[in-house]
Every structure is written in C-alpha cells, then in structure tokens.
Amino acid sequence: MPERKTTRYLLLSLVALVCVLAPLFIGQAGFQSRDKSARSASSPPPSKTTALPDSVSKQPGDKELARKIDRVLDESDLTKARWGVFVMAMKDGRVLYSRDGDKLFTPASNMKIYTTVAALDLLGTEYRWSTSVYADKQPDAGGVIDGNLTLFGRGAPDLKSYGKNGLASLAEQLYQHGVRGVSGHIIGDESYFRGELYGLGWQWNDLQWYFGAEPSALTVDENSLELKIAPADKVGTAATLTLNRETNYLHLTNNTTTLARDAQTTIGINRGLSDSELRVWGAFPIGGRSFTAYLSVPNPALWAASLFKEALIARGIKVGGEARSRDFRVVESEKFDPQKAIELAQTSSGTLSEIVRRTNKESNNLYAELILRTLGKERGSSAPDPDPRKNQERGNDEAGTAVVKAWLDHNGIPSDGLEIRDGSGLSRLDLVTPEATARMLVAIAGTSAATAFRDSLPIAGRDGTLSGRLVSSAGRVVAKTGTLTYTHSLSGYATGPDGDVLVFSIFCNDATGHHNPTRVIDQIVGLLVRPEDQSSPK
C-alpha cells in the first residue's frame, strides 16, 4: 500500500502480524530475499533492454552502466517479476538505460508524482484552500442564529479539529462575531466536489484503514482515528481499547479477552463499510505490547459536523439541532449556494507546496486524492470530455485525471494508453510507463515549480519514506517510493560523482513470494550514484 509516516507503517505492520482479519494483510505483504541459487530452472530467460538501439546512449561509460544494471536484474532472485526501468540524463536528455521502459506498469504511490507535478504547475505553489461557515441570516439581538449553520468545505486537506486555523478557530470567530446560539442543525457540506466517493479500483478491504480514507471536500483530521489496543491487568477480562479522542461518532464493541502470557495475540478489527460500527475481537496475552491501529471514519462530512458542533459547545455557543451532512447528490431544492448565504467565519489551508511536501514525503493518499479533485474542479474545463454532454455531470475526480493527461500531452509526453484512475496510486487500475514517469520528472524541472516539487520528495537516508533506505547514498537521491501488494516502485533524481543529475523510474510488478524488490531497486539506484560499484545482488 502507499506509504504515509514511517512510524505509522511500523505500527500498522505490527497490526498486520497480530490480526486475524484479512484486510490487515492487504497491501502489507512482506517480501524476504531468497538466495538466487534457489530460482527455478524453469524460470523464463531475462528480458533484454527494450529501447531501440539508436535511442540508448552508446557512450562507453553509459554502456558500462547499462551492463551493470542488466547484471543486477538478471542475477537477482526476482526474474519472474516484471521489471520496467528507464534512466536518462537531465543535462542533455540522453537515455542511458531502458528495459521495458515503454511498457505499462502499476505504479503504486508513484502515481502521486503525476498528481502533484500537474497541480504545482497549473495551480501554483501558493494556492490555498478555504473552509467557511455560513448562515441564512445574521444572529439576532441575543446572538442566536435562527436556522441552520453550514460548515462548507472546498477540499482543504489539512483542516484540523484543533489548533490555529482549525474548527476551534472557526468557533472562536463565530463567538467574536456575537454568536451565542444556533437554533437549527450543524450541517457539514461536502457538495463542492462531485464524483465517486472513492478512487476507481480501490479494494473494499482497504477502506477501513486510514490509507483508504474517503476524500471529501469537507475533510477534518485526515478523516481518521487512532485505536490503541492493550492487554488488561487481569486474565479473563477484556483488553483495553482507547480511541485518541472521546467521541460518540463510532459505536465501539469490545469482544476481546486477555489471556495468559504465553498465549498468541489474535486481534481482529472491522469497521462497517456503510455504518459507524467498530468491532474488535480476539485474544491478547497479559503483559503483551500494546499497538495502535489507524482507522478511517465513515461519512467524513457528518464527522466534521459532529466535531464542529462539539467545538461550538466547548466555546459556549448553544446548539439546538443535530449534526447533519450534505453532498452533491441531494435534490435540487436542497442544494446549498454559498452566494446566497452569509459567511460568518473562514479559515485557509497551508500552501499547495506545503501540502505537496506532506503528500510526497509521507505518501499521504488522502492529500493526493484531494489535490486531484481540486485540479478537476479548478482546471477541468481545460480538458473537457470529447462528449460535451458529459462535462456537466462529470466528477471532479474524472476531470482531474483528464487534466493530468492534458498536462502530459502539453509537455510532449504522450498519454495515449496510460490509465490514470486516481491521484494516490491506491487503485489497482492505474497503468503508466517508466519512460513517461521519468520524462515527467524532467518536464517539471523546467518550470517555476521545480524547487517546490523536488523539495517534496523523500531524501535517501534522511527523511520521509526513504529515511531508512539508500543510506550509503544519503543526500544524493531524492525519489518517490511506491508499494502495493506485489508492486514496488521508485522514481526520482540521483546525483552522480561528477555532479550530473540522472532521472530514473523503476517499476517492479508481479513480485510474488518471499523476495525483496526494494533491495534490487536500491542497488540499481546505487549504481547511478556510484557507477564504479560492480557488486551483484546477494
């Protein structure tokens, strides 16, 4: 699965080890290296470099580098997997290496490169999202709003329930405006975006986890909760379950039991796909180590309205009604028009460059999906559907993918044949090529957004999802990682010993069994940084 914070992945991996529920293992399959001598004699012969002979550099140094990359791939224990590799020089554009560089591969989180590159260039690094609070009328003499209060989202990825520029800040603005009560309901409105609730090609058993959170125009606290699970102090009693915030939004059922110290941990977790029921079951040994599961919340707009109602009450504003939600699917008579309402409070997000930095460093799926839908909302008219009748009803997610493809075409990168179905890479339907990915990295380097994009990529051996990888190349490689079940990818920039920058894109699909594709990928990247290294995979 696409990555987020390293610490969260360690914790989620622990969940995968101890839980019996299959969804915990989706996208978490571990890959262990195996001695290359154990490869089956029936394995197909390794593929050869597929770029046309006259399209790959024939310079002696480049030919030697290509020979070494071939050796790494052909002598690895992953010859049954599909490999796509494309390497080119930033300075003069020569192609140093291509193995199936023009073939289609599932990119995993390398899809975020496409989303963030197009967004930075088209929306600008300083683009911000706003979230507003509306009422039909001003508060009366007693400070009471006679009617509903609408919390209207426009896709801000970083809106929090707390802190500066969060829901508590909006409640404070209302209080300073003289509001002391609301007679009606608190409505969380996510109708700014239209389209599919989730990305096309997402697996159902990804949706209960934070990395499969629903991308809503009204997103708060990344539409997720943390559930800590720990053993009780006495055998025979239920394990301790603690959510990171007190809330009645989820109904928690605890069917766990604490067993003796030598018992096996068998914890299962399930959040209903269409309800707020959260069930935890299984056994936990006394004295066992606690762990945290990161869960998505259903109906994010209703979640946001519930949190906002709590913030209002905490600030001393009475609320007579309930928390409710509204999206684009309501009947025409119930649709909300901000132009006909009174804005009483407003807050802004961080800049797009800041959001993209978190998106790529942490591999944040939700952020990428909200960026994609924003692209569709803001620039969808520049990439209309060939059938004009579809444009009015086209979802912002679909429009966003059309904008990304149009950006590719505009920059001389053919998009014909590419399948872009989401913004994050969680979809198993995404198909791109290593060559298109590498050339996209070259194209963004020639724009005013070049620095912002490069700074958003994880730095080898230092931060983000590369903090523990390519340590010997620390500071000389910046690249976007990608991981799904049977899929690994890495694309970015590598600085060689002479200071020249090489652009690379490496995809490994169909890597089944107990193998370690990242080890092979990192060895290839190591050759770009240190071409004198002639070591073979072990």
What's the gist of this structure?
By secondary structure, this protein is of the alpha/beta class. It contains twelve helices and 19 strands.
Note down, in words, how this protein is organized.
The protein has 12 helices and 19 strands. It has 538 residues and is α/β, with parallel strands linked by helices. The C terminus is likely disordered.
Name the shape in a single word: globular
Range of helix content: 25-40%
The biggest beta sheet, please? 5 strands, antiparallel
On the 0 to 100 scale, the average pLDDT is 89
Distance between the terminal alpha carbons, to the nearest Å? 26 Å
Q: Identify low-pLDDT runs.
A: 4-51, 534-538
How is the largest sheet built, in terms of strand order?
A: 2-1-19-18-17
Question: Strand percentage, roughly?
Answer: 15-25%
**Rg, Cα atoms, Å:** 25 Å
Keywords:
single chain; 19 strands; globular; five-stranded mixed sheet; alpha/beta; 538 residues; five-stranded antiparallel sheet
Question: Which helices and strands appear, and what pairs or packs with what?
Answer:
Blueprint: H1 6-18, H2 60-74, E1 82-89, E2 95-99, H3 111-123, E3 130-135, E4 144-145, E5 149-152, H4 167-176, E6 181-182, E7 186-189, E8 224-230, E9 240-243, E10 251-259, E11 266-271, E12 277-285, E13 291-296, H5 300-315, E14 318-319, E15 323-326, E16 342-348, H6 352-362, H7 365-379, H8 388-391, H9 396-410, H10 434-444, H11 450-456, E17 477-484, E18 487-495, E19 501-509, H12 517-529
Parallel strand pairs: 4-6, 5-7, 6-14, 7-15, 10-12
Antiparallel strand pairs: 1-2, 1-19, 3-5, 3-16, 8-9, 8-13, 11-12, 17-18, 18-19
Helix pairs in contact: 2-12, 3-6, 3-7, 3-9, 3-10, 4-5, 6-7, 6-11, 7-9
